[in-house]
Amino acid sequence: MTGAPLFERMALIGIGLIGSSLAQAARERGLVKEIAVSTRSPATLQRAEELGLGDSYSLDAAVAVDGADLVILCVPVGANEAVAKWIAPALKKGAILTDVGSTKGSVIDQVGPHVPQGVHFIPGHPIAGTEQSGPDAGFSTLFEQRWCILTPPEDVDQAALEKLTAFWRRCGSDVDRMDARHHDLVLAIVSHLPHLIAYNIVGTADDLETVTKSEVIKYSASGFRDFTRLAASDPTMWRDVCLNNKDAILEMLARFSEDLSALQRAIRWGDGDMLFDLFTRTRSIRRSIIEAGQDMDEPDFGRHAKDKPFISAD
Ligand code: NAP
After folding, report:
1. Do 212 and 169 share a structural domain?
2. Is the CB of 169 under 6 A from ligand 1?
3. Is the pLDDT of residue 308 over 60?
4. HSE-CB of 222 using CA atoms within 13 angstroms
5. Which domain covers residue 216, as residue numbers?
6. Residues in domain Prephenate/arogenate dehydrogenase (predicted)?
7. pLDDT at 311 over 90
8. How many domains does the chain have?
9. Residue 16 Cβ contacting ligand 1 at under 6 Å
10. What's the pTM value of the predicted model, to 2 decimals?
11. HSE-up of 167 (CA within 13 Å, CB side)?
12. 278 lines ligand 1 (CB under 6 A)
């Protein structure tokens, strides 16, 4: 999708995997005239500059947002409030302020109160990512054929919402809109719980005494390694996700534990029908994901398709 730039100046606060990918997508597709980059550490800022991700670079987030008509917070969700306080006095009237955080209720609670009158705050979450982080991990096609969920307030300015929707569409995403609390419930089951299960199973394997670590690694292709990709995700990001989507995650964990107990009972009592029925039902979910274009129809999760990075939905 091509066309005239949508924004004069985009400020990216945080330039890790997501910020870097946005910078590259926006540049490649001509979505903005100018990109201002800000991040916390001099080392990351220097790397962003070496990669040519922006037109200007600053350690001061308020300098980056000055004059920007699009501001995107690309920091861990636990850092949003401090950043919002910092940039609030410098935000331009009429600007769109959005974010990419994996939780949405907390962002609204923590950022919302600091947004000045006349600035359009529309939280967002691209359902696209990898287990890598930092500016080098970004790539321009990350958002292609992935969903981006916007959680606008009820009284949102429609023109601003349409403009932000157009931005994500031109990054290659499909855009959905939903209530922030519903977003958090949906993401708890499709993203947060799978990551917790992966962290837990890899941690359990690491703690085992009867099976050695070298055996776990040597025979990992039998299933374990698929969990290790999720369990290699950024610790800061995932600590913040857990702390900022506490209620929904605890609710899903309770459901999960009940179902796991039922599975345990079926194994104990030799209830093969129960196991077979469940495994048949779950297999059809995998087929639906492939049909929806959210994964590749290749054995071994498409690992041998070397030309495409494997993309996860975080
Ligand atoms: P990342 O690669 O680790 O980059 C994080 C960026 O935020 C860096 O520029 C880092 O700055 C900055 N930062 C970290 N802690 C900060 C703090 N306390 N105050 C100010 N800045 C801070 O992270 P990412 O994967 O791009 O994730 C960014 C956001 O996207 C998160 O909210 C995450 O929930 C969301 N998200 C991630 C994924 C995914 O798969 N990774 C997918 C969808 C959405 P320095 O390097 O300079 O310290």
Report:
1. no
2. no
3. no
4. 5
5. 182-291
6. 8-297
7. no
8. 2
9. yes
10. 0.93
11. 30
12. no
